[in-house]
Every structure is written in structure tokens, then in C-alpha cells.
Amino acid sequence: MVKPVKFAHVVYQTRRFAEMIAWYEAVFEARVVHQDPALAFMTYDDEHHRFAFANLDVLAQDGGPDDRGTVGVNHVAYTYASVGDLLDTYERLKAAGIEPYWSIHHGITLSNYYRDPDGNRMEFQVDAEAGYMDGPTFADNPIGVEVDMEDLLAKRRSGTSEADLLAMPKGPMSPIPQLHGMT
Question: Residue 70 — φ and ψ, nearest 5°?
Fold first, then answer.
């Protein structure tokens, strides 16, 4: 069985956006690698991000809590060594009746999001494009473009290279399922 090669990051939902950023700067000596009114991404090492914060005051459509409640962990993320490992895991889990609720190319990662039986969310990812977060394309679309994992599996079987499988697809920015009633 293919296993993740590292724990990647944790994403928090918060109503204390600036305070959370300041706290993680102080405690972890983390630095902000991208911030806009709705999202902030921080790291303390060479990983593109170790923490992310979703500002519920901006993201919640009515200014109220999302349907999971108020603040807390949104998801934890695990990195796989290759797109092949990610696709093998997708295929194995699908055969067991476990399917992602969201498959997306974030630019920095190609990711599948799953829920455990208690509803805890996790992201299984493979790094895609180093430096993507630093560019203007990420600022224009910090969420990413939804992808069809079955299409990627078919391309892999037909001999498409890993680099081509990891290329950022064209398309509109995906809505965020966690904040739009798809939990």
C-alpha cells in the first residue's frame, strides 16, 4: 500500500484572522507567503505552507458560522511522493467505496479531499509546481481548478508523463466546498 511521505499542513477556520497570524508568527516564527482578506498561508521552513487560515468573517456568505459550526480545524494534509502514488491511493480507496468529496489542482498541489466517518477532513496531495504560490496566477486564483481523477487515471494509463499530469489545468476558480454546504 502506498503511504504518504510527510505530514504537510493544517488549515484552520477562524474569526480572529489577524490574531491567529500574529500568534503563529510569534510561536513558530512563521512567515506569511500569501495573504488576502479571506486566506493566509504561512510557513516556517521550505514547505510552501505549513498553516493556512480561512477568515470566516469574509468567507461565510451571511457572516455567520459555516455549517460545521464555528472555528477550528478545517483539514489536515498529507503529501505523497508522486502523482502515481496519489492516483494509486485514489484508485484503491475508490475500490473500497471511499471517494473524495473534492478533487482539485491548487497550482501548488494536486489534491483529493476526503472525510472520515466522524466528518474530519483530510487532504491527500502531491506537490505540483514549486514557486506557484509566489506568482501572480496564485493571487488571482488561490483556490484552484477542479479536476477529474478518472480523466487523470486514463491519461496516466495512456502514457502521459508525470509532469503533464501535474500541469495546472485551465478553468475557473473552484468554489470552496467546506464553506458552501458540502461538508
Answer: -105, -115
**On the CB side of 41, how many CA atoms lie within 13 Å of its CA?**
17
Amino acid occupying residue 58: V
Task: Please state which CATH number belongs to domain 6-179.
Answer: 3.10.180.10
At 179, is the secondary structure helix, strand, or coil? Answer: helix
Cell 494536486 belongs to 110
Task: Output the nine-digit C-alpha cell for 111.
Answer: 489534491
Rounded CA gap, 67 and 102, in Å? 17
Question: Cell numbers 489577524 correspond to what residue?
Answer: 18
Model confidence pLDDT, tens digit, residues 21-77: 999 999 889 999 999 999 999 999 988 899 999 998 887 654 444 444 467 898 999
Domain ranges of the chain: 6-179
The answer to whether the predicted template modeling score (pTM) of the entire model surpasses 0.70 is yes
Task: Report how far residue 14's alpha carbon sits from residue 72's, in angstroms, rounded to the nearest whole number.
Answer: 7
> pLDDT per residue over 116-156, tens digit each?
877 889 999 999 987 777 778 888 888 899 999 999 999 99
Beta strand 121-127 with 145-146 is: unpaired
Give how far the C-alpha of residue 90 lies from the chain's centroid of Cα atoms, to the nearest Å.
15
